[in-house]
Design brief:
The protein is mainly α. It is built from 4 helices and 2 strands, in the order αββααα. Among the domains are: 55 residues; 34 residues, no CATH class.
Length: 150
């Protein structure tokens, strides 16, 4: 019979760097389970907030588009906001890098492709460690969706 205080099997897996303890004190198990419960609840709350933030960003995007059009045409500033035009560099992607290098090498496609591949193959890699919740199919189908609109 499974102990309801113990985490499910995937959470108890042994990692390469840390051996699994042979026995965990009951008090420690309770603390671990409470930490897991808090983590899962916090993750759920953050996901709801992300959905709400996404919804509000979409509203803000639409309102901004309307205001930019009006303020640009009428050259106006209105109280707490003003119309500003900025020029920024695009992020570098493989798709954007190839034409730039093609122009630099004056049409030598092979050199441009070779240098692009070299840059992408030799980029620094970063390892991130994180914890992801395990969501059952039942939870996915009954998840709450934050709704609303203008």
């Amino acid at each position: 019979m499974e102990n309801p205080l113990l985490p499910p099997a995937p959470l108890m897996e042994q990692t390469e760097t840390e051996p699994v303890k042979e026995s965990v004190a009951p008090q420690e198990r309770t603390e671990i389970m409470e930490t897991v419960r808090q983590w899962v609840k916090n993750d759920h709350d953050m996901n709801l907030l992300k959905k709400e933030l996404t919804r509000r960003r979409e509203i803000q995007r639409r309102l901004t588009a309307k205001l930019v059009e009006v303020m640009r045409e009428n050259e106006m500033e209105e109280g707490d906001i003003r119309y500003v035009q900025e020029t920024k560099k695009k992020t570098i992607s493989k798709k954007g890098l190839i034409p730039i290098l093609f122009r630099f090498y004056k049409g030598d496609t092979a050199k441009a492709a070779e240098l692009t591949q070299y840059i992408y193959d030799n980029r620094e890699t970063v390892v991130q460690e994180k914890i992801k919740p395990v969501i059952s199919k039942k939870e996915k189908s009954s998840s709450t969706v934050v709704s609303g609109g203008l």
